[in-house]
Amino acid sequence: MLADYAEKIGLEFPPVDPVQEAALIALLPEIATVSNPLDYTTPIWGQGDLTYPVFAQAIAAVNADAAVLVQDYPAAGLDASKGYYQQDAAAFGRAAKEQGLPAAICATLPENMDVETRQFLIAEELAPMQGIHEALNAIAQAATWAKARARISLRMPATLLPAGQFGPLEMLTEDQGKDWLSGKGVAVPKGKTVSGEKVAEAACEIGFPVALKMMSSLLSHKTEAGAVALSLGSAEAVRAAATQMSADVASHSSKAVTDQFLVEAMSLPPLAELIVTLRSDPQFGAALVLGSGGVLVELVGDAVTLLLPASPDEIEDALQSLRVAMLLAGFRGRPKADLSKIAAQIHTLCQAYLQERDTIAEIEINPLFVYSDHVCAVDALLHRMVAS
């Protein structure tokens, strides 16, 4: 159970050193199997004089950064076995301490470790952890903290930026937002904004298939209002979509209807979709949020936040921490993304935002299509400060 969950959050169980495997086998009962995780089996369970050498040898045979012993303590009054658990815990703690390894005792369920047991483990300099997910999450976050601390100690980061001014905002239409992004070096689909009577002409000029979107400062969520039509393959389909779109948006909100449409080339399927948000938090200042984008935003809840300014290396590390990183790494034989190039392009966007954050209050790109060596902002929502 630990190994399965650890894989999901990026923790690894390093293999037993083959050179030391024979010495470990000699200490274990015949029914035990040498592996990591190690099940030392019941014949030596609860006998500290027998389990200590096993723990010591196992730690020496595995080049690990932390050690965990799984123990589910009996409920009070259930039986007299608690002492056996404690003997193993003390032996485990001694072996880990002697080899300078941080160690924890993990109960598979939070209720399987009482207050008295927690106090005993703390006295033995062992971290009492209640729950498999809780224990492994704590270890993963401790590793992240240590990695960040080491990185910061080697290279002093730039000073974080304070929160900007807050006031009334106005939303740019998608075409306006994409014009801003394009001017800052961020790729966007080829497109053209025209009136309803010219949508077919624009589509023929751009080339099929196309996407059609109504442009209105009152349409922050166009899909819900029926203001988006995708993969239109002919002039007739584009004209029909524009007519239907006007009716759909009118039924959603009559004030939101306009006669301005963005006609765009459909982008090729990406390796992955991201959501990228840049804003100034009232407490923490300028920040970048990266996460799994498209329909996965609410479904997966996979996101990481970086305070700005952030380096390309920090952005690349953040991308690798996301679940969607598996898709970027060439999932099931698909092409791999050059994360250093992708991170550099997102860094360019961050720099552009920081240069103009006195006027641009927030940028949200969802989805940002990720390809092998570049990105493309398929949908974008920008807010700017209202001039006083």
Based on the model shown, name its key terms.
388 residues; alpha+beta; Rossmann fold; D-amino Acid Aminotransferase, Chain A, domain 1; 4-stranded antiparallel sheet; 14 strands; 40% helix; 21% strand; elongated
Describe the structure in brief.
With 388 residues, this protein is of the alpha+beta class. Helices cover 40% and strands 21% of the residues. The protein has helices at residues 2-8, 18-27, 48-61, 82-98, 115-123, 132-154, 174-183, 199-206, 222-225, 235-252, 296-300, 312-321, 325-328, 339-355, and strands spanning 67-70, 103-107, 127-130, 169-171, 191-195, 210-214, 228-232, 260-265, 272-281, 285-292, 303-307, 360-370, 375-377, 380-385.
